[in-house]
Every structure is written in structure tokens, then in C-alpha cells.
Design goal:
mainly alpha; two-stranded antiparallel ribbon; 8 helices; 6 strands; 43% helix; 7% strand
Length: 219
């Protein structure tokens, strides 16, 4: 379902139980895992499923890896690698898109991160990539892998014109929420940084703001 304010053109896209875009991400049975929003891993997958991710999209993911460590089930503040592996080892299409975008994120990270933060994000990206590569694959996955890229492994989502979100931080490209059910929160994006805030300190807002957008969309 898609709605737009007739005057401001603020845009909201609402998904019920699943995000359907280049791939289908089921989250209806997972809403209880966080009191207000989706778990971090679902947010990550909603971004990684974008086959045609732009540099700005990749930078969102890089900042998420910068702010959130890898972990397992029952740890709300980390990325549940077990769940990512469960999705990607059952479906070769998901695996192809996620690993492709992880490689792209690692290459794009120096444009938005630096120093220890860059090393941390890239290390986590490479670790998740390694876990996906080494994990046992289902028979269904193996059969589809033999076909490979000769047949399209993703769906082509319907495209709609979306309003500009404005510049949230001059140190980062303008973000988009193309693959995420989201709406601009009333106290969200701003063209001005708080007094004394550096570009680096603003990166911590990425996960918070995206999760706030998801929360509004699923309530």
C-alpha cells in the first residue's frame, strides 16, 4: 500500500507481514522480537536485497555495519548472522544478491568511513561474507546455483516516484529508503548538525533513524 500527502508529498509505503521487492523478506512472525521496530538483521536484509543499490544505499549499509556488531539470536543490539545464513543458504537468489552487495559495500566503505571505524565495518562485512560462503547449502540452493546468472534470480519491483529526503549530513550522500518500508519521522532528518557534532558522530544516527522509520511503518 502506498500513500502520499497531497501537499507535502511525504511518502509512506506499508508492507503487511513481508517486504516484497527484488526479493521477499518475511517479517510477520518476527515483530515480537523488538518492542517497537524490526530487528537489526531484518533492517539489514531489507537493504541488502536491493539488486540495483546505489552508492548512497551502500553507504547506509556500511554505517549499519559500523554501528552494529555481528552476533546470534536473542541479541537485539547485534546483527543475527544465524538468521542471515538461514535466508541465504535456502535461496540461491538471496545468496547471490546479498553476497554481491556485501562485496560492493566493502569497496564503497572508504567513501563514508575512515580509520578504525572503516576497519571495523569492513571486518564485519568480510566476516559475514565468509560465514555465508562456508555455510552448508540446501539441495534447492544447489540446484538453482547450477543455473546461475543465466536466469534472473530476482523480481523487478514496481517503481514509483519518491520525494527527495534532503541532505541529512554534508559528509554523506543523500540517503534513500528505496528498499525499506518507511516514512519521514516528524523529528527526523535535518539539514543541520547539532552544535559541535562531527560527521563521525552523526553516523550513529543511521541505525536509529532507519529503525524509527520502520517502526512508524509497521504500527
Amino acid at each position: 500500500m502506498r500513500f502520499a500527502h497531497p501537499d507535502t508529498r511525504q511518502f509512506v509505503e506499508i508492507f503487511l507481514d513481508a517486504l516484497v521487492s527484488y526479493h521477499r523478506l518475511e517479517f510477520g512472525s518476527r515483530l515480537h522480537l523488538d518492542q517497537h521496530t524490526l530487528p537489526l538483521v531484518d533492517l539489514l536484509l531489507s537493504l541488502l536485497q536491493n539488486v540495483k543499490a546505489t552508492e548512497a544505499d551502500l553507504h547506509w549499509i556500511d554505517c549499519l555495519f559500523h554501528d552494529a556488531d555481528l552476533g546470534g539470536p536473542g541479541q537485539p543490539a547485534v546483527i543475527d548472522t544465524t538468521y542471515v545464513m538461514g535466508v541465504c543458504t535456502e535461496d540461491w537468489g538471496w545468496y547471490k544478491t546479498v553476497t554481491m552487495n556485501l562485496d560492493r559495500c566493502a569497496a564503497a566503505a572508504p567513501a563514508v568511513l575512515a580509520g578504525e571505524g572503516l576497519e571495523t565495518a569492513v571486518r564485519r562485512i568480510h566476516r559475514l561474507r565468509q560465514l555465508l560462503e562456508e555455510a552448508p547449502k540446501s539441495l534447492r540452493w544447489q540446484v538453482r546455483a547450477r543455473v546461475g546468472e543465466s536466469r534472473r534470480w530476482y523480481e523487478e519491483p514496481e517503481r514509483v516516484r519518491r520525494p527527495s529526503l534532503g541532505s541529512w549530513d554534508r559528509g554523506c550522500p543523500q540517503p534513500r529508503l528505496d528498499s525499506l518500508a518507511g516514512i519521514l519521522p516528524p523529528d527526523g532528518w535535518s539539514d543541520e548538525r547539532p552544535p559541535g557534532a562531527s560527521v563521525g558522530s552523526m553516523r550513529g544516527c543511521v541505525v536509529c533513524d532507519l529503525r524509527k522509520a520502520v517502526r512508524i511503518a509497521i504500527l
